[in-house]
Design brief:
With about 290 residues, the chain is an alpha+beta fold. Strands 1, 2, 3, 4, 5, 6, 7, 8 and 9 form a nine-stranded antiparallel beta sheet that branches. It contains ten helices and nine strands. The protein is elongated. The termini are close together. Helix 3 (about 35-45) packs across helix 10 (about 235-250). Helices cover about 40% and strands about 25% of the residues.
């Protein structure tokens, strides 16, 4: 898998002056576009589109500084329809406009070319199981929130606080199957996992019962799920579990992620410092 990912990275580097489609990168990596974007984001630490943008403007910046070619020609070559659009993007990455950079020889930012390699550690194992789950209903409260890559998400914090204990108790009583209890769910992410992209965030229960009229619901089709378990400090146990699933488990196992809700649950100790965490990821066999 890592070899195929690096072939996709080579393709990016050879086509920075062209439109780069996620579907073509997924074809090179022999996986689905959905899984390729998820895996790239987990391994690289930034969304695919952001990496391509930074690399493109890194190369464009070198051309701005090095030569006398008209700035508009450089802008068009790297996919910008106007000098103004190029200047805005250039300034967002480099902190200075292209004209000023050329005149003053200003220092620019550089996004290094990425490649992926395997680091063999072998000091820990990951507990997981594969579950074939029948259709179920997710019932609870949901909100449309922006994606935040690092740190607390204020929109989620405010939403959860606003649900209220009475509603949480009602939701918990609806739980009648795995994963049990009140769960947190991310679904319906727009765009390509860029900072600020919106997603549906749920506080809910997995159930086969009828949905009360005043609660939100989502019918989830039957399918295969990879279920991961971890114990440790809270909230790090759950945060690190998600990271390890995409950076360690997927590259080593014949599965890929598929569209669908990602469900997490944490049983937190009475003092709030430790947790048993569980993460349900919808998967399918990787046919590569």
């Amino acid at each position: 898998m890592l070899e195929r990912l690096n072939q996709a990275m080579d393709y990016i580097e050879s086509n920075l002056d062209r439109q780069i489609e996620g579907a073509e990168l997924a074809r090179i990596a022999v996986t689905s576009e959905y899984h390729f974007r998820r895996l790239f984001s987990a391994l690289a630490g930034i969304p695919l589109s952001e990496y391509v943008r930074r690399r493109r403007l890194t190369v464009a910046g070198a051309e701005v500084i090095a030569g006398s070619e008209p700035l508009l020609d450089i802008a068009v070559r790297y996919g910008y329809g106007s000098g103004e659009a190029f200047a805005r993007a250039f300034r967002a990455v480099h902190g200075v406009g292209p004209g000023e950079a050329r005149r003053t020889g200003a220092a620019l930012q550089s996004q290094a070319r990425m490649s992926f390699r395997l680091i063999v550690e072998g000091s820990s194992t990951m507990r997981y199981r594969i579950v074939e789950k029948a259709e179920f209903t997710l019932v609870g409260r949901k909100a449309r929130v922006p994606l935040v890559h690092e740190g607390m998400n204020p929109a989620i914090v405010d939403f959860v606080r606003g649900v209220g204990q009475e509603a949480l108790d009602r939701i918990e009583r609806l739980s009648d199957q795995e994963p049990r209890g009140v769960v947190n769910v991310s679904d319906n992410l727009s765009g390509s996992r860029e900072e600020g992209a919106e997603l549906d965030y749920w506080v809910g229960a997995v159930t086969g019962a009828d949905t009360p009229a005043d609660l939100d619901s989502l019918a989830v089709p039957a399918g295969t799920w990879a279920v991961f378990e971890s114990s440790g400090p809270f909230p790090e146990a759950l945060q690190y579990l998600w990271r390890d699933v995409f950076t360690q488990w997927f590259p080593s196992n014949p599965y890929r992620s598929r569209p669908g809700p990602e469900i997490s649950a944490a049983r937190v100790s009475s003092d709030g410092t430790q947790a048993d965490a569980e993460l349900w990821i919808p998967v399918e066999h990787d046919t590569a």
